[in-house]
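Lecture 7, part B: from sequences to assemblies.

Below are the input chains for today's worked example.
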Amino acid sequence: MNFVQPFLTLPAHQKCNIFWFRRDLRLEDNHGLWECLRAGLPVLPLFIFDTEILGKLENPKDRRVQFIHQEILRLKTELRAAGSDLLVLHGNPHEIWPTLLASCQANAIYTNRDYEPAAIQRDDTTAKTAAGLGVAFHSFKDQVIFETHEVVKDDGTPYTVYTPYSKKWKSVLQESQLEPYNSAGLKAEFITGVQFPVPTLEEMGFQATAFVYPQARLDKNTLAHYASDRDYPWKPGTTRVSLALRFGTLSVRELYRIGFQNSEKWVNELIWREFYMQILFHFPYVVGSCFRPEYNRIVWRNNEAEFEAWCNGNTGYPIVDAGMRELKQTGYMHNRVRMITASFLTKHLLIDWRWGEAWFAQHLLDFELSSNNGGWQWAAGCGVDAAPYFRIFNPYLQTLKFDPNLTYIRRWVAEFDSLKYSKPLVDHDFARKRCLQVYQAALQKP
DNA sequence: TTTTGAGTTGTTCGA
DNA sequence: GTCGAACAACTCAAA
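Predicted structure of the full complex, as structure tokens:
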């Protein structure tokens, strides 16, 4: 068992509390960690490379694993500077926890809540395991401002339309909820006198690549122009915080504070994130099926050759191809282009939105189940607050509006100006009419 | 309970 | 070239 050995260095007789990092990879303004430090006992910080999650990744060069690994090393460095260290394990948490709790004098496990179905299950099981060994399990709100039950309609049921949700969200917000959890001055400290090894990427079955991750742009200038520039994929108009938000290297409270000072429009995007998180929580069946069940009747064409052409950016529609190539090369795609490519796959090619959702899930560095699922269902017209099905993006018009000088297209489609560039996979007008027919047939009242 | 107004991100067609 | 209507009604949220 590859996770037993590091325990040998644990101070076995010292009482401690364990803080379990997951998607909150930072020491500052971390709610659960703050509570753990406040509780009084020395804190043993822990991260688990979860084989249940890593096992589902197909690409050994998955850049998200490399990102987490890099951030783990940074955390270790910071903790070592404080005379402590981060315990990093690799395995199935359900096997790790009983062994770990038997190897140290843990009083309680502290962690920040995660709202995805699989994570909820993992934490329930962990809490039960811990309880069986007389160890408490405490979880805290950290990755959102409002959790799934905190912004609901007056009758207590969840919102399914964004605008009233966002109004309620803003009306219940109090400034105190944005205050940072500043751990300076707390009594307890991290456990000292320990030194733990870290598994390498290779030991976990992954490979390192030379890749530079995007830096968040949170300067006043970017935010001041966000509302006007965010829709143009050729401009550096977005803040690129999605990766930091995904893994919690930046605090969501700090991001909201910055947003409220600089850009209302940008704050709305953060609220969209919480909107889709609560949708996934309250309607978990959206993983795998349409929010609106009547859309499950759509007869998708699901042509595999066309799907492959879409994946690789060879549809002959420049704006679609540019986006798909940006995604494959960088693990990122501009939001406007995410909508265009998703609309094209579902409506022009009539390929099941779940296929596109899975491709994005595999390739997006910032992949988040709730937002990805919500976005795809929106594009396909089958989700909450979705686009009406007859609203079919015209890739040429979208290009004219959002990339008029073809700057973005030429950046990603090198052969665009040559004769080698592919012919369109399907005629726009034909595809549009075909889509309307197929959707109409599916939605017709019996 | 009933009513009323509104709903992220569009496109096409014809006057 | 510009503008408004049609696209399809439907469901949601709140008064």
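Note for the exam: The domain at 144-178+217-282 of chain A is CATH 1.25.40.80 (Serine Threonine Protein Phosphatase 5, Tetratricopeptide repeat). Keep this in mind when comparing with the next example.
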